[in-house]
Specification:
The chain is of the alpha+beta class. The protein has a domain of 69 residues. The chain is 18% helix and 25% strand. It is built from two helices and six strands, in the order E-E-H-H-E-E-E-E. A two-stranded antiparallel ribbon has the order 1-2. The protein has a two-stranded antiparallel ribbon with strand order 3-4. A two-stranded antiparallel ribbon has the order 5-6. It is globular and about 50 Å long.
């Protein structure tokens, strides 16, 4: 997906929320994940070109800068499919990993 972003921005976090789908009651949020895009947007601004968040870019540029952990789909270094750890609240309201 492509998104247009104005730089500088006040908010660089991209939040993804997952909901269940209920037919007879309201949908419930079952988890969310957040990725901070500031480093990626700053890099795009420097090179004046779009960048793809793929495994090569992650391993060579982001990971050495202590970027959050991403798990990629396969061993193809051009892969741009990755997993983010989802979190939800348990019955006591504490955040826990759920996938």
């Amino acid at each position: 997906m492509k998104y247009k972003v104005k730089v500088p921005s006040k908010e660089y976090a991209f939040t993804i929320q997952m909901y269940d789908r209920d037919f007879f009651k309201s949908n419930d949020m079952i988890g969310e994940a957040q990725i901070n895009l500031q480093q990626i947007i700053d890099d795009c601004s420097l090179v004046k070109e779009p960048l793809t968040l793929n495994e090569t870019y992650y391993e060579e540029v982001l990971k050495p800068r202590k970027f959050q952990k991403l798990r990629f789909e396969n061993t193809d270094t051009t892969s741009d499919s990755f997993w983010l750890d989802m979190k939800s609240k348990d019955s006591d309201g504490r955040l826990e990993k759920n996938g």
